[in-house]
Write a structure and sequence with these properties.
The structure holds two protein chains of two kinds. Chain A contains six helices and 13 strands. By secondary structure, chain A is an alpha/beta fold. In chain A, the strands form three sheets. Chain A has a seven-stranded mixed beta sheet. Chain A has a four-stranded mixed beta sheet with strand order 6-5-7-10, with helices on one face. In chain A, strands 8-9 form a two-stranded antiparallel ribbon. In chain B, 34% of the residues lie in helices and 28% in strands. An eight-stranded parallel beta barrel of chain B has the order 1-4-5-6-7-10-11-12, surrounded by six helices. In chain B, a hairpin with an 8-residue loop joins strand 8 and strand 9.
C-alpha cells in the first residue's frame, strides 16, 4: 500500500509519520500531484490556521487534485476542517467537499480555548472504523474551531457544544483529534482506516 | 467531557532522567525512553521533559532524545529547557514534540512568548513559572536548574501569570518550589489563585505524595492537570491506580 502524506499545511508532520512507521506503512511526504493521485491512500494532516493552509494548497495547485481523488483520503485536525466548505477562522472558503461551515467555540461559556486534551468519542453507528473501539474511548484534541454535526458525522464529541469528531463523505474521512497522539485508541482508529483500503 | 490530565515530569540531565529535592541534589532515576514508554503505556495523559541544566548553562537542549521519544510514544509531550529562539523552538517541534515550554528565557525576553505563539499557535507554547512563597508573597524565581545561579525576579506569581497569559501563552505549569519533592500535597491556595486568574489551562506542579493530593487539587481548584515526578519514578503511585481512584471519586479522567 502506498500512502501519500500531503506536505502542505503546517510544520509538524513528524508525529503522523511516526504513527505510519509504527503501522509499518510505506509513505511519501509530498506535494507532487502525480504521487498524490497515484497513491492508494492520501493523508492530509495539518496544524496551523485555515487561511494559511488553504493558501499553501492553492499555491501548490493541490485544491482540485484533492477534490477529485477517488481513493480513501483522511484529513487530520486542520486537515479535516479543510474538507468542509468554509471556515470562520480567517474567513476562508475551504475545499468544499463536505457540506458545512467551521465555527469557533463560543467565548461566552467560560470555556478554555483551545479545546485541548483528552475527550470522549460518541458514536452509535456500525462502521468498520470503529472495530475494537469502545463508546466513550478518549482521544486527544487540540483545536479552537469545530465542524457542526450533520448527516456525515460518524462520531461526535462535546465541549460546550456538540461537534463532529469523525466525519465520512464518500471516500473522504476526517478526524478532528490527533489519532497519532491518541495512544492505543488512536493507533487502532488509524489501523482501521487503512484496513478500509483493501 | 474534557478529562483532567495526569502528567509525569521527567527532569533530564546529561541524557538521563534525574530528580532532586527542592531543585537540588539530583540523582539519576532512569533512562529517558524506558521511562517515557512506561508512563505512556500505563495511562499518562502527557509527558513533560525538562532539560534542567540547559537554561542555566545557556545551552540548548540536545535533539536526539526528542526524536527518539516521538518515535517511541503516542501521547503528547512537551519539551522544556534552553529554548530561546524561533529556530530552537522550530527544531524541537520538528523533532516531534507537541509543545515547547519556556521559563527563564521568557523572563529574559517576555516577547518570546508572543513570537512563539504567533509562529506555532498558542497551544504549543507553555510557560513554566517557578514560584517561591515567602511571608505570604509568591515570588517568581529564575534559573532554578542550578542552585548557584537561581535568583529572585521582580515578579510575583500573579503578575507574571497575567503577563504571559496576555502575551499569548497557551498553558502555564506552576511549579510551587516550597512543595517540590517533599510530598506534602499541592499548594491548593496558590493553584486556586492562578487558575482563576487566567483563562488558559494551568498545570499544578510540586508536592504530590499521595492519591489524595491529586484528588484535592482537582476537586478544590480549577487546574486542568497535575504534574508529578518522584511519586511516579519511585513507584509510590501507579498511574493506573491513581486514575481508578480519581474516577471513583468523581473526577473525569481518561481510563481505557
Amino acid at each position: 500500500m502506498n500512502v501519500a502524506v500531503i506536505e502542505s499545511c503546517g510544520a509538524n508532520f513528524k508525529s503522523v509519520l511516526n504513527a505510519l512507521d509504527r503501522l509499518n506503512l510505506n509513505y511519501k511526504l509530498t506535494i507532487d500531484k502525480t504521487i498524490i493521485q497515484q497513491a492508494d491512500v492520501v493523508l492530509l494532516p495539518g496544524v496551523g490556521s485555515a487561511g494559511f493552509a488553504m493558501n499553501k494548497l492553492n499555491n501548490n495547485g493541490l485544491t482540485d487534485v484533492i477534490c477529485q481523488l477517488k481513493q480513501p483520503v483522511l484529513g487530520i485536525c486542520l486537515g479535516m476542517q479543510l474538507l468542509y466548505e468554509y471556515s470562520v477562522e480567517d474567513n476562508v472558503p475551504c475545499l468544499g467537499i463536505i457540506p458545512g461551515r467551521l465555527n469557533k467555540f463560543p467565548d461566552n461559556m467560560n470555556l478554555i480555548i483551545p479545546h485541548m486534551g483528552w475527550n470522549n468519542l460518541i458514536f452509535d453507528v456500525n462502521h468498520p472504523l470503529f472495530a475494537d473501539i469502545k463508546l466513550n474511548n478518549d482521544v486527544y484534541f487540540v483545536h479552537s474551531y469545530y465542524a457542526p454535526i450533520n448527516e456525515y458525522t460518524l462520531a461526535s464529541c462535546n465541549y460546550g457544544v456538540d461537534f463532529t469528531a469523525i466525519v465520512n463523505y464518500a471516500n473522504f474521512y476526517g478526524m478532528q483529534f490527533h489519532p497519532e497522539k491518541s495512544s492505543e485508541v488512536g493507533a487502532k482508529l488509524l489501523a482501521n482506516f487503512f484496513r478500509l483500503v483493501k | 467531557m474534557l478529562k483532567k490530565r495526569i502528567i509525569p515530569c521527567l527532569d533530564v540531565q546529561n541524557g538521563k532522567v534525574v530528580k532532586g529535592v527542592q531543585f537540588r541534589n539530583h540523582q539519576v532515576v532512569g533512562d529517558i525512553i524506558e521511562l517515557a514508554k512506561r508512563y505512556s503505556d500505563s495511562g499518562a495523559d502527557e509527558l513533560v521533559f525538562y532539560d534542567i541544566t540547559a537554561s542555566s548553562d545557556q545551552r540548548q537542549v540536545d535533539k536526539k532524545w526528542i526524536s527518539d521519544i516521538a518515535r517511541n510514544i503516542n501521547i503528547p509531550f512537551c519539551v522544556a529547557g534552553g529554548i530561546r529562539t524561533l529556530a530552537d523552538a522550530e527544531n524541537v517541534l520538528a523533532n516531534g514534540a507537541d509543545k515547547i515550554s519556556i521559563n527563564s528565557p521568557a523572563l529574559e525576553n517576555p516577547n518570546l512568548v508572543t513570537e512563539f505563539a504567533k509562529r506555532f499557535g498558542s497551544q504549543c507554547v507553555v510557560v513554566g513559572i517557578d514560584s517561591y512563597e515567602h511571608n505570604g508573597v509568591y515570588h517568581v524565581k529564575q534559573y532554578t536548574g542550578d542552585v548557584n545561579k537561581t535568583m529572585l525576579t521582580k515578579h510575583t506569581m500573579q503578575d507574571w501569570a497575567l503577563i504571559v497569559y496576555n502575551l499569548g501563552a497557551g498553558e502555564i505549569v506552576l511549579n510551587c518550589m516550597n512543595q517540590d519533592g517533599v510530598r506534602k500535597g499541592y499548594d491548593l491556595v496558590q493553584c486556586k489563585i492562578i487558575a482563576e486568574l487566567v483563562n488558559i489551562p494551568v498545570i499544578a506542579s510540586g508536592g504530590a505524595g499521595t492519591l489524595e493530593h491529586f484528588y484535592d487539587v482537582f476537586s478544590s481548584t480549577n487546574v486542568t492537570g497535575a504534574l508529578a515526578a518522584s511519586v511516579f519514578h519511585n513507584n509510590i503511585i501507579q498511574i493506573k491506580e491513581l486514575k481508578t481512584y480519581l474516577k471513583a471519586k468523581g473526577i473525569a479522567v481518561r481510563c481505557d
